[in-house]
Structures are given as C-alpha cells and as structure tokens.
Amino acid sequence: MSDIVLEAGAGVRDEAAGRRRFRLARHSLLLAGRSLTKTRRNPGLLGDAVFVPIVFLLLFVYLFGGAVAGSTREYLQYVFPGVLVMTMLLVGMLSTGLSINTDIKKGVFDRFRSLPIGRSAPLTGIVLGDLIRYVLAAAVLFATGYLLGFRVETDAPSAVAAAALATALGFAMGWINVLIGVLIKEEVVVQTVAFLGIFPLAFGTDMVVPADTLPGWLQAWVRVNPVSDAVEASRGLLTGGPVAGAATMTLLWSAGFLAVFCPLAVYAYRRRS
After folding, report:
1. In the 8-state DSSP scheme, what is residue 149?
2. Residue 3: which pLDDT band, with cuts at 50, 70 and 90?
3. Structural domain spans, the chain
4. Using CA atoms, how far apart are residues 209 and 180, in angstroms rounded to an integer?
5. Which of 4, 67, 232, 263 has a Cα at 20 to 30 A from 96?
6. pTM of the predicted model, to two decimals?
C-alpha cells in the first residue's frame, strides 16, 4: 500500500512540475505577444532594425571597397556575410536590454510581479518578442545587398542557414545586454555599456579586411573571438567555402552564452524584484 501511495505522490509531483514548465512557456509567449503589440503600435521601435543594416553596408562598401578590394562589387561579396553577423549582434544587444530597463523604470515589471506568472516570464517574453527585429533586419540587409549587387553564390537554404546562424549568436549574446539592462538603472549607461561591449567583438574579426593584414596582437584576438567563427561560417554559407567547423563553434559559443547569461539575468531580475 505504501508503495502505491509513494508512486501516486511521485506521479502528482511530476504532473505538477510539467504544468509549471508549461505555464512558464505559456506566460512567456503571452508577454512576447505584448511586446509585438507594443512594436506594432509604435513602428518607430523597429528603426534600428531597418537603418542599422543599410547604414553599415553602405558605409563599408563605399568607404573601404575600392581601397581593400579595388572594386566595390568584389568587396560587397566579401564584407556582406560579416555585416550580416554584426547586424544581428547590434540589433539584439542594443534593443532588448534597453527595452527591459525602460519597462522596469516605468513600473511595468512591478505590475507583472502582482500577477500569478513565473518570475522569469517577463524577461523571456520581451526577448522572444524582439525576434521580429532579427527577421526584419535580415530581410532589409539581404534586400539592400541585392540592390547593391550582392549575389548568394551557394543556394537559398544556405542563405537561410547563414541568417539563422547569425541570429542564434545574436539572440544568445543579447542575454548579456538583458543582464546589463536589469543591473543598471540608467538608460544612457545601458546603451553606453552595450556599445563598448559590442564593438571589440564585431570589429575584432576579419569582417572588414583579411586577418593576415592585421597586426599580430589583433590577429590573436581574431582567432579567439567567437564572432570570427560566425563570420567565417556565414561567408562559407553565402559565398562558398568551409562551413562545418566554424558553424559548430558558433553553435557551441551560442549555447555557452545562453547557458551562462540567461540564468544570470533571471537571477538578477529576481533579486531586483
């Protein structure tokens, strides 16, 4: 009899745990819908996702194209994959943390705490809702690149895979800025820290020029920079070349960033709550 009772109790606990996990996912998706609704009512919030890829692609192609490659068309084929990765990083790291910081200052998260929802659901919901920025930024970048003359030299599935890989890294590293947005109270400081953190990662690669033309100390940074693997993988997927090793490292880096900074952001948010 006691064995039957213990088994029944274990079953109830497992069922309750499953309901809690499902409830957290459901609440996160509902709050992601709130984020999308806010974006739909204020399309200006998507300005960075629209203008960042256009500005950087035009800047790099027409400022460095002739000097580096002798031809803007050839340089466009070289620099486009790197700009794709950098755009996904910037869109993720600049918008999400600032949005969370703004909601906390306005007291929105105080209202969330009075609701019967998971403590981490507001953070997860905002991050999931911001995925629309990645999709829009990738679409704008590919459209701009096509108008300027960029052509995918592989195939359509490879191009989608390149965008997905860059998005995965941007999404994972976006949790760094989520943590910053929770810990720091001032919006301006959040933006400043995000910019200072993103530029060594985004520009410390062979995105703009080949790595062998860089100083030795900078080449050493390029070799250990996780963004370099994403640039190499995207370049292989879009214009041909080795992909497997760099793509695997990018996925591992993405999983590592997510495994470290997502729990830290949730913990900091709970402490602040």
Report:
1. T
2. very low
3. 1-41, 44-272
4. 31
5. 232
6. 0.82
